[in-house]
Amino acid sequence: RVKEYIAEIQDSQVSSKEQLEAFRMRFISKKGILTELFDDLKSAAPEQRKSLGQELNTLKNLAQSKFKEFNETIQNQSEQQAAGTLDLTLPVIPHEQGSLHPLSIVKRRIIEIFERMGFNVSYGPEIEKDWYNFSALNFADNHPAREMQDTFFITKSPEETKEDVLLRTHTSNVQVRLMERQKPPIRSIMPGRVFRNEAISARAHCVFHQVEGLYIDKSVSFKDLKDTLYHFAKEMFGKDTKIRLRPSYFPFTEPSAEIDVSCFICGGSGCNICKHTGWVEIGGSGMVDPNVLENCGIDSNEYTGFAFGMGVERITMLRYGINDLRLFTENDIRFIRQFQGA
Ligand code: PHE
């Protein structure tokens, strides 16, 4: 009987899934011939058992390898059928490669430079209370910067300015939040989006980006501020870059200074990026006003510090010679693409 089955298997052919399944049922499945024959083996005469067992194993191996072979053939067949319905001449759907926005590239670079100097990175809210955006930063109640023309207010309290909720006008709010919750030494930079009620033009926008910096410790000096800014400028724009600090005023720093860097595009000889002055302003800075330290619970007799706030758009425009702020938000793919791999 076993010999007959062997012959049957060797002669069999399958050409469909159904025939393959029938083959499996007949020989391999639990209710199939192999199971039955192995059951019979138990009742065979002892002297026959060995040779019969060997024959059964041959049959089993043959059935299994045939099944494998049939299975592969059937699968190849159905793949070929599927390929027959594919139109291989159809053009592919183009796979566009994205790239980082120039503002993201520059923000990352700024973070990298300051991280190497030992600064960490902090973030704060864009919707802010008056206290964090203005009052704690030593803005007097009637300071013009609080006026409606600069600030987008969300809720305005009739009695107390300090209760107003607004869109932050600068990243200096994060300074206050940091100083309130952390004891010095503090050495942090704070990137983020800021909002001002301004008409959109080539040089102004109602939404832009800043990176704030804050360093508070015992005996931090103006020289530390200058060294830090100078090092940053050289890392960002190249080793021949110069900086210039111009006296200025901010309610939260004293003394205060505007930060200028020598023009990256013309090297100082004059071009339309620096408006032929050789210098481009990239932000404001100064020594943290003792009133601000005290407002945030830091002893101004023990600690001093410096702060700065830089415009990410300004730095990006200077770095890449971009002369219109609106390009950053129009999302023209021809503009964005130029920064691939930058
Ligand atoms: N917050 C200021 C601005 O937006 C910049 C600044 C930050 C100045 C920190 C001094 C210190 O113009």
UniProtKB/TrEMBL annotation:
Q: Which GO terms describe its biological process?
A: phenylalanyl-tRNA aminoacylation
Broadest EC class assigned to this enzyme: ligase
Q: Which SUPFAM superfamilies match?
A: Class II aaRS and biotin synthetases, tRNA-binding arm
A Pfam entry, by short name: tRNA-synt_2d
Q: Which reaction does it catalyse?
A: tRNA(Phe) + L-phenylalanine + ATP = L-phenylalanyl-tRNA(Phe) + AMP + diphosphate + H(+)
What note does UniProt attach to the cofactor annotation? Binds 2 magnesium ions per tetramer.
Q: How does it assemble?
A: Tetramer of two alpha and two beta subunits.
Q: What is this protein called?
A: Phenylalanine--tRNA ligase alpha subunit
> What organism does the UniProt record list as the source?
Dyadobacter jejuensis
Q: What is the lineage of its organism?
A: Bacteria, Pseudomonadati, Bacteroidota, Cytophagia, Cytophagales
